[in-house]
Design a protein that fits this description.
Layout (H helix, E strand, L loop, with lengths): L4 H21 L6 E6 L5 E6 H26 L2 H33 L6 H19 L20 H28 L2 H25 L4
Antiparallel strand pairs: 1-2
């Protein structure tokens, strides 16, 4: 499944904007900027503005190059057109998320009044919500989705597992919203607990849905 122009151009636009905003901010931010924050939204690590402004655009460009061309190597032609629409949206969601993280780091460098932890939690909620929405639309494939020994060998098992996984991701999205609002260790623990229990639930559903179970 080679990428088509309509698969590529949104990423080119977003990544170009990431580099343009980095160039715009370069003379306006200090040489040392926050590059990591704790749960309370307070900076707990300082790095150079090269790290703060350029690492994410470069990572995004490299990751999207890999993700857009990986299906050309690993996905059979018979699967490609069924996979393309959902996979395109999934890749775009990841690019937008990384662009949003860079936007938060730029805002911190420009000393705009906002809470970084709240912003990142909201973006994680949007990302997980979008992934949850897309999961049931993914056909069986070797690169995206819940790939277990049971889902990869049976289409019905794949579909049922991804319908259940949708709700795990949507609940996680809601948990991230609450975490962004309350920002407590208890909420963080609850979010981690939901992720662990959700992962276990997905594996159990996948195994029990298999015809050989």
């Amino acid at each position: 499944m080679k990428p088509q122009w309509r698969d590529i151009w949104p990423h080119l636009v977003i990544i170009s904007l990431m580099f343009i905003t980095a160039a715009f901010a370069w003379p306006r931010v200090p040489e040392q900027m926050p590059v990591h924050w704790n749960l309370a939204g307070e900076p707990d690590r300082i790095g150079s503005k090269t790290e703060a402004l350029l690492i994410l655009p470069l990572i995004t460009a490299g990751m999207m190059t890999l993700l857009l061309w990986l299906p050309a190597v690993m996905v059979a032609q018979v699967q490609s057109e069924e996979l393309r629409p959902a996979y395109r949206q999934l890749c775009l969601s990841l690019t937008l998320f990384l662009a949003g993280v860079q936007g938060l780091m730029l805002a911190a460098g420009l000393k705009l009044p906002f809470n970084f932890s709240t912003g990142i939690c909201v973006m994680l909620a949007l990302l997980f919500g979008q992934i949850g929405w897309l999961l049931p639309k993914l056909p069986p494939n070797p690169i995206a989705g819940i790939r277990t020994p049971w889902t990869l060998h049976n289409r019905e098992t794949w579909d049922r597992t991804h319908r259940h996984a949708r709700w795990v991701f949507l609940v996680l999205a809601g948990s991230f919203l609450f975490l962004g609002w309350f920002q407590t260790g208890c909420m963080l623990g609850m979010t981690v607990g939901i992720a662990i229990l959700g992962g276990i639930w997905i594996i159990v559903v996948s195994s029990l849905s298999s015809p050989s179970a």
